[in-house]
Amino acid sequence: MAYKPLFNITPHLLKLLEEIAVFREKIVTAAIQVPWIPSLQKDARARNSHSSTAIEGNPLTLAEVRLLGEGKTVSTSTERATREILNYFAGLRYVEKHANKKTIVHEDLFELHSLISTGVMDQGQAGRYGTFQVRVGSHLPPAAAQVSGLMRELLEWWNKEAHQLSPVITSGIIHYRFEAIHPFGDGNGRTGRMLALWELYRRGFDNHHIFSVDEVYWEKRPLYYKNLDLVRKEEDDLTGWLEYTAEVVHLTLERVWERIQRLKGETGAGKILLTPKQERLLGLLRDQHSLSPQEIWDGLGVTKQGAMKIMNPLIQAGLMKRTGSKKTGKYILTDAEKK
């Protein structure tokens, strides 16, 4: 029996899709001329890795995840927490590498799940569908004997029918349906969110790989789970879920657009084309809120003189400023940069 998702295109969903298309076009047009796309991609990987694992309980902060992504160590992290993050980075690299793959098969899912879950599973085997009944809160997924067939139906729909719909919609459908089937013994949440992201990559919606949709899910985690549960209460009608996921994508694109504007330095003080180290410094200030001069030198791995060469253009452009006395003062973002 073929899989046929049940949903309606409501006026609200249609409006969201139209606004998303406008935002995306603006971002794609702006990104063509951006020399720091690699640093935007690096930031998106860190945000996705942090938020998707944090939803499942990983305790590491975004700053710590960034360090791990750079090949550094985090002394306060447990072995499992570190492994979860490194696994997620590996999964992201896999979907980026296979962003143009035309047909997704079971073996692709096995490989992705293995990358994400090896060494961090509480039950089941990485890279293999579950062989036992699982329960997710009040939800009882299909029996293990049904999983392979249900996943085959989902993959057939994904490969043959999904292209007829907006990738914003199909990404949401794949996300929910995978979670409903819950095919693996563990790691389904991270894998499902990764598949939703993969769909945006495959359809060319996020061709630069700079969106971090999972960050919005993590920030309002109870709302995320509430909307997943709502589909089951509505007898698998995905309409409300798709409105919710479209709202999440909409907010994600708003943030990306605002960030591009900040990185371009379009403030009252004029424009500044940021170097990777300047972008890194603004990222540190957004995470930590304020930094001493020594913390800036250490965070950027540069000398005092090197730090000033990085900081002075940002100060002149009105993106950051110093507060406090000469001895105890710290640097913070300006109100323009916080917007």
Q: Provide the CATH top-level class of the largest domain.
A: Mainly Alpha
Low-confidence stretches: 266-271
> Roughly what fraction of the amino acids lie in strands?
under 5%
CATH topology of the largest domain: Fic-like fold
Largest sheet: 3 strands, antiparallel
List the helices and strands and how they pair.
Blueprint: H1 11-31, H2 37-55, H3 62-69, H4 79-97, H5 106-117, H6 144-160, H7 167-181, H8 188-202, H9 213-219, H10 221-233, H11 239-264, H12 276-288, E1 290-291, H13 293-300, H14 304-316, E2 320-323, E3 330-333, H15 335-338
Antiparallel strand pairs: 1-3, 2-3
What would your notes on this structure say?
The protein has 339 residues and is mainly alpha-helical. The protein has two domains: 11-264, Fic-like fold, CATH 1.10.3290.10; 276-338, Winged helix-like DNA-binding domain superfamily/Winged helix DNA-binding domain (Arc Repressor Mutant, subunit A, Orthogonal Bundle). Helices cover 62% and strands 3% of the residues. It is built from 15 helices and three strands. The chain has helices at residues 11-31, 37-55, 62-69, 79-97, 106-117, 144-160, 167-181, 188-202, 213-219, 221-233, 239-264, 276-288, 293-300, 304-316, 335-338; strands at 290-291, 320-323, 330-333. Strands 1-3-2 form a three-stranded antiparallel sheet. Strand 2 and strand 3 (330-333) form a beta hairpin. Helix 2 packs across helix 3 (62-69) and helix 6 (144-160) packs antiparallel against helix 7. It is globular. Mean pLDDT is 89; it is low at 266-271.
